[in-house]
Structure formats: C-alpha cells, structure tokens
Automatic annotation (TrEMBL):
Domain Protein Lines C-terminal intervals: 720-753
Protein's recorded name: Lines homolog 1
Superkingdom of the organism of origin: Eukaryota
Region (Disordered) location: 40-66, 637-698
Positions of the Protein Lines N-terminal domain: 196-549
Amino acid sequence: MKISLLQQMYKDVLAGIPLARESRHYSSLMNLCVEQPPGGDGSCHQQHLPPTAGGTGSHQDSDMSHVVPATDDLSRSFANMSSSFCPREVTLLQLTLIKMMVAKAESQEIELHTRQKYCEIFVLLLKEAKIDSKLIHLLGSDDRLLSHMASQSLASLVYFQLKEEDAVNVPWLSFSLAALPGFPRSAGVPACLWTLAAILKETLKDAPAARAGALKKLLAPLDAVLEGFYNAILLHHFDSHHYTSPYSEATNNLISFIDLLEALLVSRIELEIPFRCQRILFLKVSYVLNVISSSIPYVIKKKFILLLKKCVLCKSREDTKGGSLFLQSPSWCEDMLALSNVVLQVVNLTWLNQIPLSGKSSYFGSSEIAPGHDSQGASDQTALRALSLVVLKALEFKIHNSATEAEIKGDFESSMSQLLMFWRSHGKPSPHSHPAGHHCEWLSLVFMEQDDDMWEAAKALLLIYLKLDRLRRGVADNLSHKEEESWQFLVHAGGYNPHCIFLFFLEKIAFDSTVLLDFLISSETCFLEYLVRYLKLLGKEWPHFVEVCNHFDSRHSALHAVCSVKQSCVAGASLQNAVGAAEPQSAMASAPHNCPVFTARQGDNGAAEWSQSDSLTGADSASLLAPLQSLVNYDSSEDSEVESDGKECLVNTKQLPSNNEGEVRRRQAGCSCRDDDRNSRTSEVSPPKLKGSPASSCWTRMASPDNIAPLRVMLYKSTKCLEELQEAISRLQRRNLFPYNPSALLKLLSQVEKMNKSMNPQ
C-alpha cells in the first residue's frame, strides 16, 4: 500500500537513514495527484493515481507525460490500495515529507550522499512531476489544513530551488504576479502573502554571504507589485462589514500582509540599497496609522502597533550583525526621519486619544474575560508600552537630526504633553501602585513589567535630554541662574529628568544592586549603554543629582509626617474620648492638610520653584505608602550575593542601619518602602524647611531643635547601591566570570564613589 511505503520512507528520513532504492521510486511515491482537489470536510474520496507500468490511465495529468513508469511492486501497491485509507491522509503525509526533506537536505548534520539523494528526488519532482504547479493548485483548497501544508511545502521548494539553482521558481512567481494585483477580487492573496513571508524567513536563516544575492533574486521581480498591493490594501474601506469579524477573509488578508511586512523589515538589513517594498512601511506610515485608529478588530491594530515598535527599535532580528553600518546608511536615516515626522504630527493632533487599548486581547484563543478576572477599566499594557516607545523613539530621532533648539522645542513639548496624558489615561491600576506624584515617575510605572522596553525608553529620554541641553548651551556659554531654573522646571514638567528617572527606578527595585547586575549581564536589554551614558552625565551634574536626592527625601519626610499626624490625631481622639472631651472629630481630621509633598511648580517669575503642593488626603497618603514588590529574588543564589564592605555611613551624626539588612527585611516582608523603615531613619531628623511652608504643629512631634542639617537618605541609598554594584562587578571580573570587559564601567562607578566620599569624608 502506498501509505505503508510513505510511512516507511518518513521513518527513514526522520532517522537519517539513507534511502536504498532509486530516486525515481521515491519521486513517484511523493508525487501528488490533485486533478480533483480534496474536499474541505476531510471525507475520503477517490484520487487519481499515477499510471501503472503497463497502463495508460484515462485521467492521466498532462503534467505527468514525462514521468518514467514506476516499478512493478510500487504499481501493485498503488493498485491494491485499500479504500479504507483516505487520500487526504496520503496527501498530508506527502506534504510533510517534502518539507522535512528540504530541511534535511540543507542540514550539515546529514551525510553528503544522503543529501545528494534528496536533491535528486527534488529535481525529479520539480522538472518532471511539476509538483510546484500542483502545490499552487492545492493553495485554493477549501480544506484549511491541506492549504496550509501546501503553502509550507511550496515555500520550502521555492527556497530550495533559489539556493541550489540560484533561480526563482517560475510557476510560483507567475502565481504571485497574478494574485497580488488582483486584490481584492483574487482568492489566492493570503496564500501568496504567507508563502512569500515564509520564503523570506527561510532565506534569512542561510549563511550571511548568500543572503543578499538570494534576496535580490527574490524581490526584484516583485518590488513594484508589492508597493501597489500596499497602497491597495491599506487604502481599503476598513469601516465596512468585511472587517467586523477577526475571522473574515478580509481580516486574514491584513494579518498575512502584516507578517509579510515584518519579514520585509527584517530583510532590509541585508541589502546596502533596499528595495522600495522594504522601505514602503516607513515612507507611507500614515496608511498604517489610519488603520490603527479605524474600527477594524483590535487584534489587527495591536499587530500593526507591535510592527511599528520593531521599526523604531531596529529589533526585528536578534542577530543584527552589521547593524551599525545599516543604521548609518542614507536610506535608513531618510526612512526613519519620514516615519518620525508623520508619527509626531499625528500625536500632536491627539491621535493617541483615538486608540482604545482593549484589555481583552491577551486571553488565550478568546476575547472573553476569564472567570474571576475583572478587566473593566484595564488597558492593554503591551500595546501601551509599544505605542509609547514609538513616540519616544520618533522624538529621539527627530531631535537627533535637528540643528537648533527652535526647530523642535514646540513639537517636543506638545508630544510629551500628549504622551503624559496618554499614560495617565491608560496607566495600569494596581493595589501595589500609586498615582504618579511626579511626571518623571511615569516611565517606571508604565515600563516596569518589561525590562527591554523600559531601558529603551529611558535611553531615549536620556539622549533627548543630552541633545536639548547641548543645543541650549550652544546658544549661550554662560546661562543665568534664572535660565537654569527655568530649564530644570521644563525638564521635570516634561517627565524626562534623567536623575529623577534613575532614582524612581532604584526605588521600585528597593535599591537592590543585584537587579542592576542582572541587567548588565543580560544581552536582552540596552541597560549597559544607558548606564554608561548616565554615569558620564552624573559626573558632570553631581550637584544637581544631590539636589534631586534632597527633594526625594523631602517627599518621603512629608509622607511620614502625614502618617505621624494621623496616628497622633487618632491617639488624641482616643484620649479625649476617655476624659469626656467633646471636641469635634472634624477638627482633628483636618490636621494633616498642611504637610508638604514633593512636586514642582513654576513661580510668578517663570523660574522653577520646588515647594509644597496641595494637601494629601488620607487615601492618597495611604496609596503612596503602598508596598512595591521587588523584581527578582536573589536570596537563593549564592553567586549573586553582594558582599558587604563593612563600612558605615554617618549622616548628621546619626548612624543609619545597614542597607543590606534593611533590604533583606523588606524583601522578606514583601515590600520595599514601608513607613516602619522610614521611621528608623527620619524620626529624629526634621525635613528641610521648604520655601513658603505654612507653620504646622505636626513637625514639633518629630523634630529636634538640635537636628537642622539636611537629611540625605536617598543620596546614601542610591550611592550605596552603585557601590555594591561596583564591588560585585569587580569580584566577578577577578574570577573571570563577567561576560565582557567592564573596565570603563568600573572607572565611571569609581568616580561616583569619589564624588560621594568628597561630600561625606566620614
């Protein structure tokens, strides 16, 4: 029986056993009989078989006229095939064998003579059996499994022929050139798109030296057709009823096209001069932005959003060898500038507000909410981060290519304002998070769950800050104090102060240096590049960093004061109730309303002024003191433990507790910022008196008149974290365990340590 022979052949190929019989035997065995395409219901039906050795076969395919008759035993097997076997099963096994044998023929693990035998079989199938034409015929089958398997097999054969013969398969090329211009009338569009994407992906797996030539052969005849198809499908009327269902044919066309666009994006890095079809996504990105804001199913919107993220991050491939040359190419700069201009233009026109980020897109195989999960009001955080990165990287590229501050100042402030409003609208609600009290905190709140995205966003904002600072200093060498204050106000209001961003992140990870070490060792993030750039900036702006640390301490002291007052008010109320006092509770409830909070506002003279904000309510203060979970638990890893240097830091003649001990207690308790820990550090030291702060009796309960020196808890904890990181890196380097040479990084960390010790010589 044919099925038995195919099964034995499958086992031999799978095990790598050489095929003992002649090549024509196996090519006849694998030849498809598709004069009548199999039915979509999977029911058994009679297929026309190859002719026997002595027969003519009234239904013989014209394409089979050159096939040499099969051997007698094979003919007898065909003739005696049991009707209990469905020809659909035979066809599926043949398709599986084709795909498997192509993979084996390209594998260097298979013996040379075995691979040569596979190649001989494929030559017979392509030249004599015309199997490519039969596979194209199967693409239109109503049986979705058969159609999908035929697409995979066809892609494998086209790739095989492209690599071995340096030629594009003619039947497949003719099919593609006819199907794509026929949209939307042509029924073969999805199969054509999917097959081309699969061929591109297979080509990119090849040796680097062979990729460019193969891509040129493949894309040159399709370049103009693909650009025309891009215009046709993305200018379609997406509000029509054809796109209301995520399972419609129109939706399937779009999803297949997105996969092809991603493959084209990946492949452009291999060519010095990319084809137009590889650039069209950048040059006509407005079409994609219109689709995202239309009423199409959310799954398509999200795929387009993630595709745009890959465009701006240049991360479509993990192995981007030669990427630096690629990024410097004129076509890439031109394309990214075109994309950035259009993205920022629509963002300033409130385009972000038109995108509903559905929270139902992540459920497995369904859009229904799982039992016990209430996603009302929740937004898709993956899409939120992707859109945010698209805007931030567009801003970074636009500013990088601007020569003066006047060119981009207005657009930048408008775009950042829109982005901050977007974050406030879609920020993830969590019992362990709190509303951002400072614009610079939004970055860590939005991106904390995705390490690689977070550091890409932080690096973008850092580069924006550096470029804007360089542009403003280029206008005037000596800036006045008022101009410096105005600059700092704008930086904080825009949410891109690099020192605030870094300190907020350290707070979120409980100042755990092992988390930073993990990021440095990992190759999945750009944290190394970010940290080196930031430490260089820190060396230049150390006084400003200290100032920001002091403001963090003021904020925490204010929060502690709120809690202290509330506790004392409760105690006072209990005492008054005990002695029969009749003072109204409302008078005590208003006591905390004079306590300061860390915010920035602009004074009448336009300069930045750090002062108290409006009073905190009880709910706000409670949410701000909510525990923040540590990202990684390193307690079980001996290699990751950071050795304590045994040194003690004295602040205002008061001994601070060991940072390691405090962090261990916090991790064991499951929080990183409890007010119990704050009590041990701040109960004996009054917060710095802020300008315009109203007199309040709440400070007298916790302040000592002798302690008037500024509190520097944040400075101590942040620099201590960096010192521990420096020690851990040095220890790993001595043992030859660090994955790269960290000498430059250690030098920068050492400079931070020296600057800190110069302030605290104790």
